[in-house]
Amino acid sequence: MRRDSIFYKLFQQSPSLLFELLTNPPANADSYTFDSVAVKEPKFEIDGVFLPPQNQSPGVVYFCEVQFQKDERLYERVFAESHLYFYRNRDRFSDWQAVIIYPSRNIEQSDIYPHRNQLNTDQVHRIYLDELGDIRSLPVWVALMVLTTLEENRATEEARYLIARSQQQAPQPQNRAIIDLLTTIMVYKFEGKSQREVEEMLGITLQQTRVYQEILAEGIQEGEQRGEQRGREQGREQGEKSLVLRQLTRRVGELPQSARQQVESLSLEQLENLGEALLDFRSMADLDEWLAPLKP
Fold this sequence. Notes:
The protein is an alpha/beta fold. The chain has three domains: about 1-130, 3-Layer(aba) Sandwich (Trna Endonuclease, Chain: A, domain 1), CATH 3.40.1350; about 135-205, no CATH class; about 210-295, no CATH class. It has 13 helices and five strands. Helix 6 runs antiparallel to helix 7, helix 9 crosses helix 10 and helix 10 packs parallel to helix 12 (about 270-275). The protein is about 50% helix and about 15% strand. The longest helix has 22 residues, at about 230-250. It has helices at about 5-15, 15-20, 75-90, 115-120, 140-145, 150-170, 170-190, 195-200, 210-225, 230-250, 255-265, 270-275, 285-290; strands spanning about 35-40, 45-50, 60-65, 95-100, 125-130. It is elongated.
């Protein structure tokens, strides 16, 4: 499971999330941006860097490392990268902080003695997700982090709870982002299941995910701009067509013109049914078989 990419998606969506893990976050936490940077001579790739606003320079830069596998040279690398980047950007930053996120303490580097001075200061923060408390009592974005560490049976139960909670509490755009990331987490966790099977486990449908909502919105806007009589209804149909055609291309490859034309001629209800069915397609033969009863 590629947990690091999931965490960085979380940070991109909400950079201030990192500071919810800290006891003493900066006063301007909401103004930070998340980025990845390269440091040359020697070249280091720092995946998680939280940059203070440029108009508030010099500020404090935060380095973040998400570590779900044991690495006996982790602190050597993190401190080397951090110090070198800070050195090369000294004029911009007044201080640096490092945050290392572990699923549990047993993943931490065994020999920490050479780094005892830094690890025991307020400059380095070690976060152990299994020690943050009950997942249901945590802020929803932090809870998504903890969700990546849970066993499959419990993960399903807690994921359904988080979906229900976000639907009740989060604004609509944020709710869609939460569902999208949560679905991604669960697809990675249950690698043997299709996205459709995961959605059934969670009690959600494709229509609730971000990619569907975005494409649907594009179709509605396109329909309204063309001034069609049925406006939003035809816009929704156009959005559904765009979504289904994109999903089919990803699943089975470029569509023959005849198959594309038949898909474009489907009604809105048929398109929605195809949108559900295609999640299990593996080849053009599956699409041909699904379309066959609908041919005139």
